[in-house]
Amino acid sequence: MARSKTSKKWLDEHVNDPYVKKAKADGYRSRASYKLIELNEKDKLFRPGNIVMDLGSAPGGWSQIVAPLVGERGGVIASDILHMDSIIGVTFIQGDFTDEAVYAQILSTLNGQKADVVMSDMSPNLSGVATTDQYSSIYLVELALDMARNVLTPGGSFCAKVFQGVGYEEYVKDVRTSFDKVVVRKPAASRPRSREVYIVGKGFKR
Asked: Which EC numbers characterise this protein's activity in its record (predicted)?
């Protein structure tokens, strides 16, 4: 089947993307790893001993960065609908975290502890209909915020990908109600034409 002009353009862009090439050279699973590296450099999200929750974790680009930073005294609990190959220091739970059974499994992995950081790089399966896709993306990031409110320790941090558009401003205001400091970042590894930004909340207040 012949590729559409759009898919061919995306493939060409992906193959020639300097961050894709760099990820392969550096042994990272995803170009998204560089987004988190930059966010952590600016916002100091992770410390040794932290418990970190990684929502929408596959293929593991973010967990791969965080696991060595939190070390043996810390840990990462990662979850995704898709399979993710194992990473030392990461407990992976496959499934939809909005399902009760999966949610319960995540909580049991916490073993009564609170998380220091909840991070989400989730994206919806795109339909190609801009309005539908925006609502889907806002819904996902609202779920990530709900999870953060349920599991974060006081003073904890939240980092999530969100797409600018309908519902974005309201979402940022909502995040501000739960954190002392909220900033919006556009990492260098985010494609310039993408509407994605990362919202970082620090100082969780119950």
From this structure: 2.1.1.166
